[in-house]
Write a structure and sequence with these properties.
Layout: H1 22-40, H2 49-66, H3 72-95, H4 105-129
Helix pairs in contact: 3-4
Transmembrane segments: 74-93, 105-125
Keywords: Membrane, Metal-binding, Transferase, Transmembrane, Transmembrane helix, Ubl conjugation pathway, Zinc, Zinc-finger
GO biological process, one term: ubiquitin-dependent protein catabolic process
Length: 130
């Protein structure tokens, strides 16, 4: 069988040609492997430095965009929002001390205020930790 080469530099002949002895076939395999390793180590297969810089910049931008929820303005807004619910809960509970409702609405209000306090403390802890 005759070996053919394409313009791409790839050897299109089969690795094991019929009629070859084991030594000849093994030599063909090793030659093909060494050619591949030489090409892989060449400049064409390596990434260019500018491509690495672009990939690194894109990765950093993606990380920043995914962490927008931990930015200072969002944290402050979140804490103020939950603090306002706590203040409203305290005001409502203090203004209705004399009332005796039949439904346990006060328990729900106290539970919600506690949940807001826990949420604010967790958000502040996460912000300080990051």
């Amino acid at each position: 069988m005759e070996r053919t080469r394409l313009d791409t530099g790839v050897d299109s002949s089969p690795l094991l040609e019929s009629g070859n002895t084991n030594n000849e076939a093994r030599g063909t395999v090793f030659q093909s492997a060494s050619r591949f390793i030489r090409r892989a180590g060449g400049r064409r297969m390596m990434r260019e430095p500018s491509m690495l810089v672009r990939e690194n910049a894109a990765q950093q931008l993606e990380e920043r965009q995914s962490d927008w929820a931990y930015s200072k303005p969002v944290i402050i807004l979140d804490i103020l929002w939950n603090l306002s619910f706590v203040v409203v809960s305290v005001v409502i509970l203090s203004s209705t001390l004399d009332e005796r409702p039949t439904t346990p609405l006060r328990i729900w209000i106290v539970g919600y205020a506690l949940q807001c306090i826990l949420h604010m403390s967790y958000v502040a802890y996460e912000y300080i930790r990051r």
